[in-house]
Amino acid sequence: MATSAVARETVFALRRQIAKIEGTLPERLQAPAAAPGDAPRNPTADVTPQDPTADVTPKNLTIVRRGLAVAPPDAFLRTGAEDLDTALGGGLPKAALSEIHGAATRDAGAVAGFALSLVSLILKQGPRLPVLWIGTAEIFREAGFPYATGLHRLFGIEPEQLLFSEAPRLLDALWTAEEAARMTALAAVILEIRGSPQRLDLTATRRLHARAQSAGRPVFLLRQAGEPEPTAAPVRLVLSAAPSAPRQTIAGPLAGSIGRPAFTVSIGKSRTALPGQFTLEWNPDERSFEERRAGERRQERAANPVPVVSASRRGKDPAPASGAVLAFAAVGSPAAGDQPSPGERAAHRRPRRAG
């Protein structure tokens, strides 16, 4: 009996240690109940015995982020979307590695736009330092580079503030990112990688995360068409493009127009948040995100219906509906312009020659 009690205490101590390594701190995590006849525990042990009559339902288990109580107010980057910030425990961590995933290559524009929106939020709060964007020749050839005019108009980023580093190999890109992550002269570091390479493993991401924590600067890892593999990033967001709402005018929404950029954001991994999905719109004037809720979207569509097919431009009224379509012509004389069938042609009505 004593051996089983020691084994349970050892397992429980390991669970506490794993929780600390993963970044969660169980405030009230009690040890399993001792079986009848077990030897008494050592009072100096790391855990305390559980009352057999106590309620052990999940409501008694409180898990908080490690260091959240002593974290400074500016430790998290708030997006402006209250539900997303609340789900993430205050926002994205500034001094950390954050993953932004795109399920397919066609989502590269949405992933890059969301990353630039985060950079705009960082530059809005702090000094306007340059940002380094690192990638391989393959990713830049496939996804392209940001448009300079759009950087200033949509995100308030000057073209000279965004620096690019094109590495010939993934190993060189990782080395450049590690060296840049330790620099305090940069506002942020962006590392864009395509696929799921083996060199981007848990060890490599741990180094990036440690450098970001040491420098107090964020490192954004953009994954294009990659699999969600284990990394040291505390937060992983999955991005895709969302339909834009009509452009707002003084007279109301302009039907058939394209409004602000919109993103569908899913929490793929978080040490404190539960999985969830949000639709965010980027406000280029206020430099912040605004959340679009499903109910508001349905009301907007009901108030401003947009026809699937626009009216004809040649006249006031659209073309009348077509009549019934038959697979065979109706019985009677053929209509004007119809060609006779091969059996009705004169050449086919001639008798065959004999002999």
State the gist of this model.
Helix content is 28%, strand content 21%.
Q: Looking at the structure, what is the overall shape?
A: globular
Q: Which H/E pattern describes the elements?
A: HEEEHEEHEHHEHEHEEEEEEEHH
Q: What Rg, in angstroms, do the CA atoms define?
A: 31 Å
- Strand-residue proportion: 15-25%
What structural class should be given to the helix and strand makeup? alpha/beta
The strands making up the biggest β-sheet line up spatially as 7-6-8-9-5-10-13-14-15
Point out poorly predicted stretches: 25-70, 306-313
Number of helices: 9
Query: Mean pLDDT, nearest integer?
Result: 77
Helicity level, as a percent range? 25-40%
Please provide the count of β strands: 15
Biggest sheet, open or closed, and with what strands and sense? 9 strands, mixed
From the N-terminal CA to the C-terminal CA, the straight-line distance is: 112 Å
